[in-house]
Design a protein that fits this description.
about 350 residues; alpha/beta; nine-stranded mixed β-sheet
Length: about 350
């Protein structure tokens, strides 16, 4: 046992999560590291992750056999970079951070805010995994952006930062704004320009729920050395920690994070929905219950995927994929309420 205690006095065996489903860890190297999801990064007390905390984070991953995703900051030090250089991980970088840290096109992830999308031209024709963060009202720009920049995408994930404030009018406008995507994606796919796009192509190939699984399959280590279900909970309130590198991991009622404890999600086939537990908690006060806005957006994406798939199959493309039948509702809660009436 003593052989598994490193120079910082941490017993890595005891720190291993009771939930054996844990597969990976997100390491946030700095408070201002780019956001890859719905939350916003912001300056907090810790700032840049101390070197000893980064060493402990790396040891935790290596001892537990966990894959690692590291969020890089524009002010990360040479000492941090040297330490990370010998550590197998996926880099998550802001588009402006590429000047000092070259990403691997096949594995690493580049974060782009809509206002800097034109900076993708610096990628010099290589295809990368891109996360585009934008507001819901800007979705009307997606068809043109994808048409113009598709040659940079191995995979494109689009995340809408202001889902929580979306009105019914905005949700309906979203449906109208993304409708042209079916023609843009169709033309690209049939002409051999294949890439993954979370809003459209994911649902076409999934046959079960593909949740984020924060707190189940992955956890976050923040700059303060504490564990969080995901980075969003750290930025929301540092007191939302579920343990630390010094004390171990403890997620109260962790079973509630699973699909088995979400009655609505179990009957839903918008498989591409990420079921973001942070948005769930923030908007419904339950980690396992998505908000009306999340469900409606996911169903608009689902329905668009179904129309595109039908269009492709009519021309004998993707004939092996199961069709996506139309639904009469946009929120599973409506369906559930009909059942219990």
């Amino acid at each position: 046992m003593s052989g598994l205690i490193n120079t910082f006095g941490i017993n890595w065996t005891e720190l291993k999560m009771e939930n054996s489903k844990l597969e990976s860890v997100v390491i946030v190297t700095d408070d201002i590291a780019p956001s890859f999801c719905y939350y916003d990064s912001k300056t907090k007390m810790t700032g840049l992750m101390p070197i000893d905390v980064l060493k402990d984070s790396i040891n935790f991953c290596e001892r537990g056999g966990y894959a690692a995703t590291v969020l890089y900051s524009a002010r990360i030090s040479e000492e941090h970079l040297k330490l990370l250089d010998g550590f197998a991980h996926i880099k998550v970088l802001d588009i402006d951070t590429l000047k000092f840290c070259l990403p691997d096109p096949e594995n690493d992830i580049i974060i782009v805010e809509l206002g800097k999308f034109q900076n993708l031209d610096t990628l010099q024709g290589k295809k990368y995994n891109i996360i585009l963060r934008m507001d819901l009202e800007e979705a009307k720009q997606l068809p043109m952006l994808i048409y113009q920049y598709h040659h940079y995408f191995r995979r494109l994930n689009v995340l809408f930062k202001n889902v929580g404030s979306a009105t019914e009018s905005a949700l309906n406008q979203f449906r109208i704004d993304i409708e042209p995507l079916k023609n843009v994606i169709y033309d690209l796919l049939v002409s051999g320009n294949a890439f993954e796009f979370n809003m459209v192509t994911d649902r076409m190939v999934l046959d079960s729920v593909n949740s984020c699984d924060a707190g189940i399959k992955h956890l976050t280590i923040a700059p303060n050395g504490c564990f969080y279900v995901c980075p969003a909970f750290y930025y929301e309130d540092e007191d939302h920690a579920v343990g630390s590198l010094n004390t171990g991991i403890n997620i109260p009622n962790s079973h509630l994070l699973t699909i088995q404890y979400s009655a609505l999600c179990r009957i839903c086939d918008s498989y591409q929905c990420r079921r973001c537990v942070f948005l769930n908690k923030k908007m419904t006060h339950e980690v396992n219950t998505p908000s009306h806005q999340q469900c409606v957006l996911s169903h608009h994406e689902r329905n668009l995927s179904g129309i595109l798939l039908q269009k492709l199959q009519s021309k004998h493309f993707f004939s092996h994929i199961k069709n996506i039948p139309p639904l009469y509702y946009l929120d599973p809660l409506d369906y559930y309420q009909d059942i219990v009436k």
